[in-house]
Amino acid sequence: MGNRLSKIYTRTGDDGSTGLGDGSRVPKDSARVAAYGTVDELNSTIGMVLACEGVPPDVREALTQVQHELFDLGGELCIPGMAMVQDADIARLESVLDGFNEPLPPLKEFILPGGGMAAACGHLARTVCRRAEREVIALAREEAVRPQAQRYLNRLSDLLFVICRVLARAGGHGEVIWQHERRPRG
C-alpha cells in the first residue's frame, strides 16, 4: 500500500466544504459530515478508554474490534451508497454484550456515570455513541442510509453501558446508584 496521506493539508476545505469518499464535495456542516464526524469522535473516546490502566483483556479485545468497525462505519457514511457494516457485525455486538452482561447483577436503579477513570471514559463514549446514532437518524431523513448503521450504533451504546459496569467493578470502584429520593420534593 502506498502513502495514503502524503500531504496533510490541501487547502481545499478553506471554503467550508469537504470531500466525500466518492469525490463529491459537501458543506462541512452537512448532516453526512456531522454523522461520520461524530462516529470518528466516538472512536477517539473509545481510544481514551483503551488508554486507561486496568482495562481487562476481554474488554480491550472487544473495544479494539469496535474501533475497527467504527472506522468501517465512518467509511460507509463518508461514501454514499457504500455498505461496510453488516448484520453479522450487529449480531457479534449482541453476543459480546450478552457475555459481559450475564455475570452482572440486575440493575434496579439508574447509575451515575463514573466508577473510575476507565468507566468514566466509557460513559463518555456511550453518550457520544448516542449522539452519533441521532446524527445518523438525522442524515437518514435527508439521504439514503442503510439501517445497519443505526442498528449498529444502538447496540454499541448498550454494549458500552455494560462495559462501563464491568470496568467499574474491575477497577474496584463499583457503581454509584442515583438517589432519586435524596431530597424532599416540593
Automatic annotation (TrEMBL):
Pfam families to which the protein is assigned, alphabetical? Cob_adeno_trans
Looking up InterPro entries in the UniProt record yields: CblAdoTrfase-like, CblAdoTrfase-like_sf, PduO-typ
Entry superkingdom: Bacteria
Molecular function as annotated in GO: corrinoid adenosyltransferase activity
Residue ranges of the Cobalamin adenosyltransferase-like domain?
8-166
Recorded metabolic or biological pathway in which this protein acts:
Cofactor biosynthesis; adenosylcobalamin biosynthesis; adenosylcobalamin from cob(II)yrinate a,c-diamide: step 2/7
| Catalytic activity line of the entry | 2 cob(II)alamin + reduced [electron-transfer flavoprotein] + 2 ATP = 2 adenosylcob(III)alamin + 2 triphosphate + oxidized [electron-transfer flavoprotein] + 3 H(+); 2 cob(II)yrinate a,c diamide + reduced [electron-transfer flavoprotein] + 2 ATP = 2 adenosylcob(III)yrinate a,c-diamide + 2 triphosphate + oxidized [electron-transfer flavoprotein] + 3 H(+)
Hey, which family's this protein in? Belongs to the Cob(I)alamin adenosyltransferase family.
Q: What is this protein called in UniProt?
A: Corrinoid adenosyltransferase
The protein's organism comes out as Frateuria flava
